[in-house]
Request: fold
Amino acid sequence: MSGLARIARRGRPRPNGLTIFGVVTLGCLLFLGVFGPWLPLGDPSRIAAGPRLDAPSAQFLFGTDELGRNFLPRVVQGIRSTFLLSAVAVAITAVIGTLLGMAAGYLGRHTDQIVARGADILFAFPALVAGLLVAAIMGPGQASAITVISIATLPLFIRVVRSVTLGVAGRGFVTAAEVAGASTLRVMLVHLLPNVMGAVIVQLTYALSIGMIIESGLSFLGLGVQPPNASLGSLLRQGSAYLTIAPWMVLSSGVVLSLAIMSVNLVGDAVRDALEPLKGRPLT
Amino acid sequence: MRLATYLLPRVLAALVTLLGVSVLVFLSLRLLPGGYADILLGPFVTPEARAVIAQRYGLDQPLVVQYLRWVWAMLGGDFGVSMVTQRPVIDELLRRAPVTLQLALIALVLALAVGYPLGVLSGVRAASRRKRRDFGRVIGAMGASVPDFVLGSVLIFVFSVWSLWFRVGGYVPLGVDPVGNLRTMLLPGLTLSVFGVALILRTTRDAVLRVMTEPHITAAVARGASPGAIIRRHILRNAAIPVVTVVATYFGFLLGGAVIVEVLFSVPGVGLYIFNGLLNRDYAIVQAGVLLAAMVFITINMLADVLYALIDPRVGVSR
Reply:
């Protein structure tokens, strides 16, 4: 099989069509999300800007909703809140998960047992079912969404950081630092952290896409972002009531949401190929 | 017994996880705004009534005692009573469990039937030609990126405009009308399966690629074995091992987590029941439902570990 020889000769991964598509799409969506409020797209909350449930036209690219609001700026607002909410939740979770994972891998023994079991416990809750419980306790809203995203993604960070730390903790430079009298905290932050960062960055992109799916799912059920604010999930919820007579609401927000998640996933794949060339998809 | 030394820690870990899950779920109900008496009796509750309720439900006892009583009741099959219907939650959950199980099985079968062959094909192709990205990566990226409620909404739109053969909503039990049941269950099953297709495809593809670098493949090539025989005898079996783990996780999530698809397609399964429980502030349902979902998930993953040990003869040895 000549493939084996080719595999042996493989070089560093080069950018390809899918990656470029992902980067460009993600760039456009982030631009819209960040600068959306200052772009001349129209007012997302102005009622009766046009006829009700008007089909897409040159004036209203994505049509209008049941209150006659221009749907395009609402989708842009949705991009903004979906990305922002997921990013905030994942950022908080990444910091906590990295610290816990490093502590588990480096300190070992009881700390490791407790943290690893804790990650298992969180992992056992299906995200949206846990979301129902969290919504019952905290009430629907952005805080609930952030909590649910954290519950779902914390185990990912803990497990990956823990396993990388286990591989690094016994190496010479760590022992040298310990012998030189470095405190536990210093060993973790100065010597271990740089070694786990690559794995954390790879997990960040996957956690972001999971976070976006959870956020939009909760908002779709009416448990996440509350009106008048919009997320891509709540726009889908709004549109699904008028699915047969005004399908553009579901289609536009659904396509944008899928593109957003896909672009994050594709960028995540590219980041993984670049940072961990020997892991995951090693041979392609 | 090497198998036992492999399995015992895993079973113990699953039990500890179960314990942790139950403590979390138990505490969560105590965190509810207002407390149990207020939820049960409404805002105009007198202190006397509150005391009666507290005594009847044992709320005046220490938390540890309450927890142990709660666990003891569950071991006897008592998962609480619905505040709305005053009937045991477990009855309704068990009545609906087969619906969710059927939905999960449809999704799993579809996902395996499409994902596994495509994953093998894509992996073999990617390794033997110099194609970094082939159809496997495109399908994998797309399937993992379209949320189930987006896909489900689009399917509902398509099939409510052109009815074709499928029906949206109007669930019929399998025992009453098998064909009518499939007409309503295939669309939600299909919706749920798309993520599984992507997941299984990607896992299989990675596994195939990894197996293909191993020495025994090179040896088989050197022996002059045909590519078909290599795939059948050496690749398929070895590539199946990581797929088992992923399939178990996926199945566990399907059994507990199909809330959105059940709500979307009005499938009267466990997920819809929990969701309606939340809308009615019937917290006993939410609590029991979440606990059962997590229990099912843990159990299935433990069974996957057992299966793993049976498929892969190396497991008991290396430990």
In short: The two ends of chain A are 15 Å apart (CA to CA). Chain A touches chain B through 57 residues (CB under 8 Å).
